[in-house]
Design goal:
Layout (H helix, E strand, L loop, with lengths): L1 E6 L3 H11 L5 E7 L2 H11 L3 E5 L7 H8 L4 E6 L4 H9 L4 E4 L4 H12 L4 E2 L1 H12 L4 H8 L4 H11 L4 H8 L3 H15 L4 H10 L5
Parallel strand pairs: 1-2, 1-3, 3-4, 4-5, 5-6
Pfam families: GerE (PF00196), Response_reg (PF00072)
Keywords: DNA-binding, Phosphoprotein, Transcription, Transcription regulation
GO molecular function, one term: DNA binding
Length: 211
């Protein structure tokens, strides 16, 4: 069972999201918050696996709340706003996913399962914007140069991270234990000087490891 904290200042939106999540027997909404500060408090007391955060909320907005919550819990940002600055800030504070509320409900369910499993998830509608925002740091030859310090196994792991696989899925694919995959992923982050799986995936994409 995946435990979820839902944070949005609009009760009707929370009810709608809860209804969508209720269609999946593996998901359980353990708490709801109406603002960012309450979300932080409930995340500390209810120990959710994934927190769904609206970007714009009173008292403390979702991005500020995500910066604190993402230190110990997976965060997915939910918003009606698709502006570049929100996407960049969400990834910068450590969010594992970014979805538009106007997206397909099935996309939300897929995102929760992916993020809970250790992967990253971006709405297809914003994924190309992430490529544009971050790709400039790692275009072509520059990206390949950054990969030159990785071992053959680390390149294999990075390729699978770029394809959106979780640590457990990578472990099964490479026939190694999940703890070893985590060690490889941590080493890749350090060598590439990135903060999360999305940034690592962008470099894999720009270097040609992932099409």
């Amino acid at each position: 069972m995946i435990r979820i904290l839902l944070a949005d200042d609009e009760a009707m939106i929370r009810a709608g999201v809860r209804a969508i999540l209720g269609a999946d027997p593996e998901l359980d909404v353990v708490a709801e918050a109406g603002d960012g500060r309450e979300a932080i408090e409930l995340a500390r007391s209810h120990f959710p696996d994934v927190v769904l955060l609206d970007v714009r909320m009173p008292r403390l907005d979702g991005l500020a709340a995500a910066q604190e919550i993402a230190k110990h819990t997976k965060v997915i940002m939910l918003t009606t706003f698709g502006e570049d600055d929100y996407i960049a800030k969400a990834l910068d504070v450590g969010a594992s996913g970014f979805l538009l509320k106007s997206g397909d409900p099935r996309e939300l369910l897929a995102a929760i399962h992916a993020v809970a499993g250790g992967a990253a998830y971006l709405s297809p509608k914003v994924a190309h914007r992430v490529i544009s925002l971050m790709g400039g740091l790692s275009k072509g030859a520059q990206a390949r140069e950054r990969l030159s310090g990785l071992t053959e196994r680390e390149l294999e792991v990075l390729t699978l991270v770029g394809k959106g696989l979780s640590n457990a899925e990578i472990a099964r694919r490479l026939h190694i234990v999940e703890g070893t995959v985590k060690a490889y992923v941590s080493a890749i982050f350090i060598r590439l000087d990135v903060r999360n799986r999305v940034q690592a995936a962008i470099i894999a994409y720009e270097a040609g490891l992932v099409t």
